[in-house]
Amino acid sequence: MTRSINKWALLALLVVLAMMHGSPARAEDELMGLQEIVDQANPGATLVLKPGTYQGPVVVNKPLTIRTEGEGNVELINRSQLPALSIDADGTTVAGLHITDGMVKETPTVLVRGHRAVLNGLYIRTGGDGIAVRDADEGLVTNTTIDWAAEGVRLADKGNGVDVFNGHRWRFMDNTIRDVHDGIYMENSDDTRVTGNRIERSRYGIHCMYTNRTVIERNEGSLNVTGAMVMTARQVSVIGNSFSKQSENVNSQGILLYDTHDSVLADNTVDGNRVGLYVELSTGNRLENNEVRYNFVGIQLLDSSSNSIAHNRFTGNVADAQARSSEDNRIIENYWDNFRGIDANGDGNSDISYAINPLFQELTKKRPAFQLFFQSPGMVFLEGLYQSDRDRWTTDAAPLMTPPMSENQIGDAEGRTLTGIAGLVLLGCTGTLFFWMRRRMS
Amino acid sequence: MKDMKYVAIREMNIGFRNPWAYSFMALFAVFMLSLLIIHTQGGVSGFSGTSGTMLNLALYLLPLMALMLGSFSLTGEKEEGNWELLSTYPLGTWPFLAGKYIGLSAVLLSIVAFGFGLSGSAGWLLGSGFDFLTYKQLLGFSIGLSLFYLGIAMLIGTLARNRWQALTIAVGVWFFTVIAWPSLLIAMLGMMPYLWIKPAITTLTFLNPAELTRLFTVVKLGGGSTLGPEYYKWMIWIRSPWGTPVFAGVMLVWIGAALAAAYGLWERGRGRG
């Protein structure tokens, strides 16, 4: 009893002292486990961690604010199978911590089960899921970096950067996620906002499953298998994102919509992917003002209807579009650089329509081995011959004659000069050869 | 060796005097340039719309050029009686054919080099040129394609008795391997059991130099994923350091086999004559 009173008195003293210094409850001992510091704090208190290395795992079961003194010098190391940091209480904030949790495991590095959690400026190195949210709502993750820590793990065996299950109204802003399975995975989670994140070298950048009203804005992704994958979702907004260089994998896409309805996909840039925009079994979506360039296939439509595809710009794609069983879409006023239209009345739209030949799609669906003929001269020739049922093809009724958006990117000049010089050298050589041969002849 | 060199230089002399060579060169250069001008937006890098079209242009033109130049050169010797004259000299069939092949390659490759030189430098000056790696890859592709088809041309020139025959066979081979290839394969393999399709297609691809070179280049340009999951291993393999040497090896075997067949036929003809 006296002991406990003593303890309380000591803690009160500590808090008073800390308050006088302007910062409450200091972590006195570097070797001390973080759990003890957390256990000693009062609910609602702010813990400011001194620089140093702390030992995990830690369970936060009362509302706390955990901050660090200064930047980037407080490290939490976890070598157990448990999550490095579990947040069970509502209204907890954790900021600035570096969490190293390199063991490959099923459990996540940060597990959030409390509502209104705020994770700010963390640096997480994980061997499982970076941040897992389970049955908790209205949290916020910002300015956090998540990296995969373990060596030699296959992509398929890695954990997700952020994994949300049954967590609604979350916000993920300005985070950087690299080398994980899915960058941000959301399942059964509605009204989340994913904005300004950067995701690289992962499987899917942003992955929605069974979500409604998700907002995916201004994110950037590169070298992932797929940038944004929206599956079985409704009223999702995918706006102003940029996904590039996702062409290495045979299933790569810039943005994929599968069984997605009544969603908006606008102002995105998909550059250098295998398929720029991939739409399957989806209805009632609006795809507008997207910049689709240098992809192997610009847009692929499969079994989709009642979508509106307008004012997009398709340039430099190997094949503009591929479509199958996608008849009743409203496709109008897109710019296709492979299409040469005729505009007799001068309204800027072509008077002849641009129909997407379904032959290759149908052929490769039945026998994938024929994929080998993608854009081969013979295949292009065969497509030219195949014109049956043309009125049922997916068709842009009035394609634009000139691109709708200003050109915002001219490829880098690097390597161009070298090509120019090589060209001149080749010209010089052949010129000399011709001259020399001519002289020999005369 | 000396004979071979003599034949090669003679072939180059004839080749560079041949108006056909210059019209082919003009055709190739003009097409390269116009494609570059059509696709002036941005530059050309990797497997994109422009490099895809360039690839197809080369696939249309180069095999036809190689087949015609090569087979006409050989049948010309027969028609004009040069061969009868040459057979009175102590000139072996092998130095003759190999020399022909080398001389014709020099002519054809300078046509290709001129076309590429022009589009490379013009693209640079117009500010919409190729990225160097892509340029190198496309040039390599064109050279490979020319050499492959020149090998076939030697065989055609041996088989055909005159230029008309050579033209017929050359156009036939060109149409069959470049244009009609997918249609034929799709029609033929469509009847086969599903599991046979991929092995059959793989084997047949190795028999068609146009497809072989095209696929190699598409993968090298980074477009391997367009071939789909069925060919994932190919993609990995071609991109490995072994890809290029093995492709060069296949090419050598191919051309060697074509020349050897031509040699055999030519020798037989000589025996009869």
Question: What are its keywords?
Answer:
heterodimer, A: 442 residues, alpha/beta, Pectate Lyase C-like, 13-stranded parallel β-sheet, 35% strand, elongated, B: 273 residues, mainly alpha, 0% strand, globular
SSE arrangement:
The complex is a heterodimer of chains A (442) and B (273).
Chain A lengths: L1 H19 L13 H7 L5 E4 L2 E4 L2 E3 L4 E4 L5 E4 L7 E3 L5 E3 L2 E4 L8 E3 L5 E3 L2 E4 L4 E4 L5 E3 L2 E4 L13 E4 L5 E3 L2 E3 L3 E6 L5 E3 L2 E3 L3 E6 L5 E3 L2 E3 L3 E9 L2 E3 L2 E3 L8 E9 L2 E3 L2 E3 L3 E6 L5 E3 L2 E3 L3 E6 L5 E3 L2 E3 L3 E6 L5 E3 L2 E2 L17 E3 L2 H8 L10 H9 L8 E3 L19 H26 L1
Parallel strand pairs in A: 1-4, 2-5, 3-6, 4-7, 5-8, 6-9, 7-10, 8-11, 9-12, 10-13, 11-14, 12-15, 13-16, 14-17, 15-18, 16-19, 17-20, 18-21, 19-22, 20-23, 21-24, 22-25, 23-26, 24-27, 25-28, 26-29, 27-30, 28-31, 29-32, 30-33, 31-34, 32-35, 33-36, 34-37, 35-38
Antiparallel strand pairs in A: 39-40
Chain B lengths: L1 H16 L1 H20 L10 H31 L2 H6 L5 H34 L5 H28 L3 H17 L1 H9 L4 H14 L1 H15 L8 H8 L3 H30 L1
Largest sheet of chain A: 13 strands, parallel
Mean pLDDT of chain B: 87
SS strand fraction of chain A: 35-45%
CATH fold group of chain A: Pectate Lyase C-like
CATH architecture of chain A: 3 Solenoid
Task: Give the radius of gyration of chain A.
Answer: 28 Å
**H and E order of chain B:** HHHHHHHHHHHH
N-to-C terminal Cα separation of chain B, in Å? 25 Å
Strand order of the biggest β-sheet of chain A: 1-4-7-10-13-16-19-22-25-28-31-34-37
Helix content of chain B: over 70%
Please give the most extensive interface between any two protein chains, plus how many residues each contributes.
A-B, 64 and 69 residues
Instruction: Give me the count of strands of chain A.
Output: 40
Please state the structural category of chain B: mainly alpha
What is the overall number of helices of chain B? 12
- Alpha-carbon distance between the two ends of chain A: 118 Å
Short description:
The complex is a heterodimer of chains A (442) and B (273). Chain A is α/β, with parallel strands linked by helices.
